[in-house]
Structure prediction request, 219 residues.
Amino acid sequence: MLTYEKVKKSEAIRTYIIQADESLAALGFTEHCFAHVVHVAETAGYILTTMGFNSRTVELAKIAGYLHDIGNLVNRKDHSQSGAVMAWSILNDMGCEPAEIAAIVTAIGNHDEGTGVPVNAVAAALILADKSDVRRSRVRNTDITTFDIHDRVNYSVIKSILEINESKTLVTLKLTVDTKYGSVMDYFEIFMGRMLLCRKAAEKLGLQFKLIINGQQLM
Prediction:
């Protein structure tokens, strides 16, 4: 049975993640390497564990989280679809069961806000985990004077917490934003599509989605 830890130890997968991130670096995108994919994997696992899903479904969500951005190796455009196809080949070669491959591939192919839909629990958890990873440390540009809006927004986020309440009715993304670098309006300008997709993903899991920035509820 394929495990998250076995996937993490694959040198081929590590190479694809590194090369995909280097392509994004060349294009000026934020960090999409191990800090991001491990965070997404662990957060997706937290979401499904908290919501009472069985350990195997949690494992599949973590694998999907770790693999979700490898499609950037091919091209940023449609990376969720190319990543899903890559994941199918990789997982098949690693002996993963077809039903489990299907769940992972479906999640990867649906994680991006351009075309993504939370069609199952693994996809929903992946969407919430991925789109909530906004933080200063993902910004590569060290020259604040040349920041574009994506740099400003990510750099402005000092703290980001995604948490599910005790009654398992609400998932909240809490952001602490330094408005010296990016305004709340800047955040909405580039992330509105992502937040709407998060709301749909939360609903798929039977949750309400709330966005709180600097103590103020905005969604």
